[in-house]
Design a protein that fits this description.
This protein has a domain at 25-68. The chain has four helices and no strands. It has helices at residues 3-6, 25-37, 45-50, 54-66.
Length: 75
């Protein structure tokens, strides 16, 4: 379900979704748990996060944080 907006490789397919490849595991887990608890609100992410267990969140965070992501700045 994440790949629909964020892409399987963590590079977002749509402009309103952030890239999450290479993001810190702690950050990703914190944000997903905030969506799940209702502390952070988003019409799509809140619904999706409520379906995730702690193990799911840890696995997703580990996967996306392990992806190397770099941006090249044109000269």
């Amino acid at each position: 379900m994440c790949r629909t907006c964020h892409g399987i490789d963590g590079v977002a397919w749509i402009p309103i979704a952030p890239h999450i490849a290479g993001e810190s595991s702690v950050y990703l887990q914190t944000q997903l748990k905030a969506f799940r608890s209702g502390k952070r609100q988003h019409e799509i992410m809140s619904v999706i996060a409520k379906q995730l267990s702690d193990e799911d969140i840890a696995n997703l965070a580990a996967w996306y944080s392990s992806i190397e992501f770099s941006v090249e700045v044109p000269e």
